[in-house]
Structure formats: structure tokens, C-alpha cells
Amino acid sequence: MRKLDVFDTTLRDGEQSAGVNLHGSEKLEIAIQLERFGVDIMEAGFPASSPGDFKAIQEIANRVKDCSVAGLARATKSDIDAAWEALRHAAQPRLHIFIATSPIHMEHKLRKSPDEVVETAVECVRYAASRFPVVQWSAEDATRSDWDFLVRIITQVIDAGAKVINLPDTVGYTTPSEYVRLFEYIRANVPNLGDVKLSAHCHDDLGLAVANSLAAIQTGVEQIEGTINGIGERAGNAALEELLVALAIRKDVYGRSTRIQLAETALTSKLVAKLTGMAVPANKAVVGNNAFAHESGIHQDGVLKNALTYEIIRPEMVGLNSNRMVLGKHSGRHAFKEKCEELNLQLGEQQFNRLFAAFKALTETKKEITDDDILALVLESSIED
Ligand code: KIV
Ligand code: ZN
């Protein structure tokens, strides 16, 4: 199976989530967990953005040895110098340098002509490649850029020393089939791609970040980017845990291997949620509290007979002990009986029927019935007896 590099940007794009501000020690704690999770590259931050981020990146670079540590830089020599200072002691330092390539960004944000953008990009990549062993270049807003302009600038930054070319869907605008065509166009028209790796980086403004990333993987990109829990600018980035589980479950479709230790998923997600203060929605795929919870009688009956009836992901795969049977108004006798056995209740048939009726009555007024609720019902019924 072909290897896919996993580039985690929780500590850079993820930290750009509104309201998130991680201290150096918190960034280091997440970095150590990401290393354990098995990412190939972690983007530790944006060294030129603040002295605090610079120091945090430096500490991560000194400590993390089992994966590449990257830092972000705009296309300026001072950003590249700051990144080199922060990352020079990393085991595998990488510079991630970007410049916008879409007409709207070039004209209104950069106020540069396309020729000037090419010149700046080439000059900075050449300068960066004289220091960093690996330079990754990103065409910001690639999905709203002219494809022939992308071919021209990519060809030149590769000549200047870029080893990884990333085509971000910066504003979450593209669709799976359009993103596929973009990568195919670049592969077919950039003459000097050689060993250069192509990378996909998606945002979730239209809720398509994971779908777009998976489509890019099917075109054969060598690297995928995302964040834990999908945190990031605006609606966030592609959720790495969703991508990685999809790759593991649907090997028949994607046929790609990674170094990821999926059993570390739940822990990694919880740590990121705790330290960023961004709670994971209950219905979030893979890591939400309800992702392995079954409430309706039909589903509970099926899962109790064979979990595969309603679970395509086994909870153990992502580091959880078990699924959860939630007792609520849709639950049936099978799940209720299991719960009584789990609580060690010795009930005759009539007692069980009465308890089940009392449980059903309680669900009229209470959404989720806890163990304590059931024990209280048992106590009430024995007093009545
Ligand atoms: O979304 C984006 O374009 C980015 C770049 C800095 C690569 O995060
Ligand atoms: Zn981004």
C-alpha cells in the first residue's frame, strides 16, 4: 500500500480558531501527544507571529524527535530567518512558506501583480532552501486561482528548491470533483514534479473539508493536512481523526497506509478539546460523545446481537473501551434486560415486566435514564410489594 504523509496543523491553523490561545506548555503537551499519535509532520506554529509562539516552537523543536517539526512563514526573509532560528535544532526541520495566488488576494491583499508574486515566491523559496532541508510551498487560495498561473509558479518554485507543493482550499470553496481536476491538471502540466510531493489542505466553510481531502487522496496526493477535532479558522480545517478512520475502514477505496496509531485518537481529541477550550459536539464523527452511543430499541437489539449491525467503527479502534447503550424512550426490552444484568438485579419475569413498564413511564419525562434511576425504580417497586 502506498504511504500517505500526515501533516498536522492543530498547533498553527488550529490555534487560529477564534477564541483559542495556547500557552507554550500547553502547545508542548499537545505536540508530545501528536508525536505519540504518529503524525509525520507537525506544524508547531508561526515563529514570526509573536515571541511567545517563537519560544513554544523552539521548545517543541528541541523536544520532539520522532517526527518533522514545521513552522509557517510569509514570503519574507525576516519570517524565514525567524523560522530557522526557532527550528534549527529540530530532528527534521521543515519550512512552510506561502503566498497567495488568486486574483482577489494578489490584487486586494498583496497589491502585487502576478509577475511580482512569482518573483517574490521564487526568491524566498531559494533563500529558504539554502537553510532548510525541506521547504514546503503553499499557493494560498489555490482553489480560486487560475490553473495556468498555478502551473507557472509551481514550476518555478520547484526549480528554486521546493520539495512539497500544497494546494490549499483556503476558504473552503471547492468541491470534491473540482479539487480532483485541479490536482490532475497540476500533475499533467507541471513538467518538473519528479519526486516533489503534492499536498491537500482543506477548510470546512461548506462542510466539505473531509470529502475534498479524501477526493484529493484518491488522486494520489502524497500528503494530507488537517487538525484534531477539525478546529481552525472560521468553520475549521479537515478533521484528521475522520480522515484517518476513513482511510483505515475503507482501505478497499483509498488503499493508503499511514504511521498513525489510531488507538491514540480519543486521548488526542480529549487533550486538544481540554486545552483549547473547544468542546467537541456530541454528534461529531469518530470523537463525539454520541459517536458510539445507541438509543433506539431496534439499534440496541441489533448491536447486542452483533455490533457490526450498526457500528462500522469499533470503539476499541480509536481507543475507547466500549460503545454506550443509552436508555431512553426509544429503547427496548433487550437493552433494558442487559442493563438489569449489568446491575446484578435478580428479577423474575413478572418483576422484570413491571420494572420495564415503570422505566418506559419514566422516559415520558426524562430523556436519559441512568443506573441510579433504575435502582430507584427497583426500590420503589419493592416498597410497593
Ligand atoms: O488555508 C491556508 O491557505 C493556509 C495557508 C497558510 C497554507 O493555512
Ligand atoms: Zn489553512
3D architecture notes:
The protein has 385 residues and is an alpha/beta fold. The strands form three sheets. An eight-stranded parallel β-barrel has the order 2-3-4-5-6-7-8-9, surrounded by seven helices. Helix 12 links the parallel strand 11 and strand 12. Helix 1 runs parallel beside helix 2 and helix 5 runs parallel beside helix 6. It is elongated and about 85 Å long. The structure holds 3-methyl-2-oxobutanoic acid and zinc ion (ZN).
Give me a quick take on this structure:
Its cofactor is Mn(2+). The chain has helices at 24-37, 51-63, 77-87, 103-110, 114-129, 147-160, 176-189, 209-218, 240-249, 251-254, 265-276, 297-305, 333-342, 349-362, 371-384; strands at 2-3, 5-8, 41-45, 68-74, 93-100, 134-140, 164-169, 197-202, 223-226, 256-257, 293-294, 324-325.
Anisotropy-based shape? elongated
Strand order of the largest sheet: 2-3-4-5-6-7-8-9
Q: What's the pLDDT, averaged over the residues? A: 97
Percent range for β-strand residues: 5-15%
Largest sheet: 8 strands, parallel, barrel
Please compute the radius of gyration using only Cα atoms: 25 Å
Which segments are poorly predicted (pLDDT under 50) over 5 or more consecutive residues? none
The count of helical stretches stands at: 15
- Based on secondary structure, the structural category is alpha/beta
Amount of helix? 40-55%
Termini separation comes to 65 Å
Bound molecules: 3-methyl-2-oxobutanoic acid, zinc ion
The overall strand count is 12
What string gives the helices and strands in order? EEHEHEHEHHEHEHEHEHHEHEHEHHH
